[in-house]
Amino acid sequence: MFGRWDPWRSAGAALLFAFVDALQLRMQASGLGHIPYEAFLMLPFIFTIIAMAFMSRNAVAPSALLKPFRREER
Fold first, then answer.
1. Considering the domain boundaries, does residue 60 fall inside one?
2. Neighbours of 65 (CB within 10 A)
3. pLDDT above 80: residue 56
4. Which of 8, 17, 44, 72 sits in a 20 to 30 Å window from 24, CA-based?
5. Separation of alpha carbons 62 and 18, rounded Å
6. What is the secondary structure of 25-64 as a DSSP string?
7. Does 27 map to a domain?
């Protein structure tokens, strides 16, 4: 839903997730205070959930999303 069923948007979403994942590794290596490393590991997933909450509000599902494909009916 984050990519709104568009391959380019989905690829962008995957790159965004990878960027935040690399960022959390960089933040973890820099040793920011006494923050446990588990908090940094959660960062990409929390960011993705927040982004999905905002982006999927206007998402429209494809009309044939849950319809079974039957060749005889076409």
1. no
2. 7
3. no
4. 8
5. 27
6. HHHHHHT-TT--HHHHHHHHHHHHHHHHHHHTTS----TT
7. yes
The count of structural domains within the chain is 1
What confidence category does residue 57 fall into, taking pLDDT thresholds of 50, 70 and 90?
Answer: confident
Say whether pLDDT at 74 is over 70. Answer: no
Is residue 37, in this structure, part of any structural domain at all?
yes
Q: Which domain holds residue 24?
A: 1-54
- Which DSSP letter does residue 40 get? H
Compute the residue count for the chain.
74
Q: Which of 50, 38, 35 is nearest to 2 (CA)?
A: 50
- Write out the DSSP string of 9-34: HHHHHHHHHHHHHHHHHHHHHHT-TT
| Whole-prediction pTM | 0.72
13 lies in a domain? yes
